[in-house]
Write a structure and sequence with these properties.
Layout (H helix, E strand, L loop, with lengths): L12 H8 L8 H7 L15 H14 L4 E5 L7 H12 L4 E5 L3 H7 L2 E6 L2 E6 L2 H8 L11 H4 L10 E2 L2 E2 L37 E3 L1
Parallel strand pairs: 1-2
Antiparallel strand pairs: 3-4, 3-7, 5-6
Length: 209
């Protein structure tokens, strides 16, 4: 299991990883540490490691330790792109049970076959990976499409200075807003309208495996 705290016993990096590994896979300790960016630190004492280095050593221990169910909490934290790519390939070929808690959508899409959604004390199971989960929840949960840099600066319809069909909206001398015609009809009096806040944040409390 890999948690956020990831405590390590005292000793050398390579010795700690090899000691917890399955006896038949102890020889893989050097290879896994190298893939996770710790190839130059086999002989270092863990007491001198940084927080990110400790997390990578703990991840190597979790991957090599014998288990029927591998539980990983944010495993891609502190990894470079090569390390993340290797971890995705490793977990995609993993033959045991796998439970992952992560914000990495690419990792979920490549390695998971079922999603567990926890919402206000109720659990909902969704078959498929994270993309399938978003599809089943509908358009409201899909991430908005990314705009190209050129599109991000396009004027919006009906904005000052923009072309709308064959009509051009002139800029207003006051705050750059379009001019409004004065109306002789008195405005109705009453309470101001209620404001509604809309959030596109993902559903709270997701656990994935």
């Amino acid at each position: 299991m890999l948690d956020q705290e990831a405590p390590l016993p005292s000793g050398r990096v390579l010795d700690i990883v090899a000691a917890d590994a399955d006896p038949e896979r102890a020889w893989e300790a050097e290879a896994v540490l190298t893939r996770l960016g710790m190839g130059a630190h086999f002989e270092r004492d863990v007491s001198g490691l940084s927080g990110g280095e400790i997390k990578r050593v703990s991840l190597a221990r979790a991957l090599l330790a014998p288990s029927d169910l591998l539980i990983l909490d944010e495993p891609t934290n502190h990894l470079d792109l090569d390390g993340i790519q290797w971890l995705e390939d490793y977990l995609a070929a993993y033959r045991g049970g796998l439970m992952i808690v992560t914000h990495d959508r690419h990792l979920l899409d490549r390695t998971t076959t079922r999603m567990l959604e926890l919402d206000r004390g109720t659990a909902f199971v969704h078959e498929g990976n994270y993309a399938d989960y978003l599809e089943s929840k509908g358009p409201a949960t899909r991430p908005p499409p990314r705009l190209r840099p050129s599109e991000a600066t396009w004027p919006r319809p009906n904005s000052p200075g923009s072309d709308v069909g064959h009509r051009r909206v002139p800029p207003s001398p006051r705050h750059g807003l379009p001019r409004r015609r004065r109306s002789s009809t008195p405005r109705p009096r009453g309470r101001p309208g209620q404001l509604i806040s809309i959030s596109n944040s993902p559903p709270p409390g997701l656990a994935m495996w």
